[in-house]
Amino acid sequence: MTKTPKIHPVILCGGSGTRLWPLSRKSYPKQFSKIMGDESLFQMSAARLSGPNFSAPLVLTNSDFRFIVTEQLAAMSITGSDILIEPDMKNTGPAILAAAIFLAQKDPDALMLVAPSDHVIPDTAHFQKTIAAGIEPAVAGQLVTFGIKPDRAETGYGYLHLSEGAGDFSATPRKLKRFVEKPDQKTADDMVATGEYLWNAGIFLFSAKTLIEEYKKHAPNQLPMCQESVASAKEDLNFLRLDGDAWAQLENQSIDYAIMERSDCLTAVPFDGEWSDLGSWEAVWLNSNPDSENQVVVSQNATAIDCENTLLRSENENQELVGIGLKDIVAIAMPDAVLVADINSSQNVKLAVQSLKDTKKKQAEQFPRDHRPWGWFETLALGGRFQVKRIMVHPGAALSLQSHVHRAEHWVVVQGAAMVTVGDMKKIVSENQSVYIPLGEVHRLENPGKVDLHLIEVQTGAYLGEDDIIRYEDVYSRS
Fold it and tell me: Which CATH superfamily does the domain covering 373-473 fall into?
C-alpha cells in the first residue's frame, strides 16, 4: 500500500488587515487577534493544519510580525517551524513561489498546502478530510484549489467555475473551467443558481516541483529573481530573511493572476463545511451565533438592551459599552478608538481607515498596545513633557542595552521582579520597588523570573518618541 505523503502547511500571515478596524490595524492585524475565541486566527489556522499527516508549518510573514508568530506558535506548543521573512509585501505570488523554492531544496516532491492565516473553519476533521481528497491529483502534478460551497450570492469573493458535477459539493476532485473575478450582484445570483460555482478561498495544494514548473511556463521572468532571493537569504536568529535586492525586482502579483488563471492543470475540490474569511464586522456577527434578536455581545464589558441585528464589543475592561434600541449596528470600542457603523456598510471600514491616514491620526495603523519581541507596552497617559507606560516583559526576555538622548525614566515594579542595569550598577528590583534612569545613562531591563514582569514607566523630557533609542546590545538583532 502506498504511503500517504506528509503535507507541508504554508501559512501566509503578512497582511495588514484593515477591514476589522479598530481591532485590527497595520501594527497588529486581525490574524493575531482573538476574534472568535481564546486563540488568535493564526493559532487556529496552525492548529487546523497540524496532526500526524502534517509537517511543521512554513510561515511567511514580515519583519514586524516575526516575534508575534514565534510567540503564538510557542503558546500552541507547535515547534520546528520555518519562518521566512518577506522584505516587502508583493502579494501571494512571490510569497508562495519562495515557499516552493525553499521546500524544493529539501524535497522537490514536497506537497504544499497553502492557506491564509485569518480564516475560520470550525470543523477541523471535515476540513482535513477534504484536503486529503486533493492529495492524489496533487501528487499527479495538478494544481489543486479548494473552493467553498456558497450559501449566498456574495459579491465580495471571487469564484471557481466547475467543469462538471453541477449541484454536487462533495469533496470529489474535478476539473476547473475558470476563475471568475468578484461579480456584480446579478451575475453572482445567476452563478450561484447554476450550482456550478464555488467561492475562491485561496487555499491550494500542489507539489513544490509542480508550482516551479508552472512558473517556468507562465511567469518565467519571476522565477530567477525569486530563486536568487531564497539563495541569498540570511539567517537571523530563528528566521530566514529573503534577500531584499532580488525581492524588489519581483512583480506584485497574486498567485491567481500569475499562475492559476493561465494553467491547464487545475483541479478543484469543493468544501461544504462552515467557512469564513472574516472580511467584515458583518461576517464576525454572522459567525458569532446571534441570539433570537440577532444580537451579539462579544465581551463582558458590553450590554445590549432591546437591540436587533447588532454587534457590540468592548476591548477595554474599564470601558462599558451599552447599546439601547439599536438596529443593524456594529459598535466596537477600543481604548483609543470607537467604531459605530451600519452593519450592512461594514465593508466600508477601509474608507474610515484611509480618512484617518489622510489626517495623520495614529489610530489608523498603530495598535494601542505595542507588541515587541520581549513583550508589550501601552501608554496610560501622555503630556507635553511626560509619558506614563505600562510594560510587560516575558519570563527570560530582555530589552536592549540602550540609552536615550532626550528623556529620563523612572521604573516602578508592580508584579514580578526585574534585573535592572543602570551604568555600572546591576541589581534586582522587586515588587513595590523603583529605580531611576538619568537622561543619557546606559541601561537595560530583564525578567529573570518565571512569571510575567509588569512595571510602570514614567518618562520625562523634551522628546518622548520611540525613535529616541541608541542600542548597544540586543538579543533580538534589532538595529
Answer: Jelly Rolls (2.60.120.10)
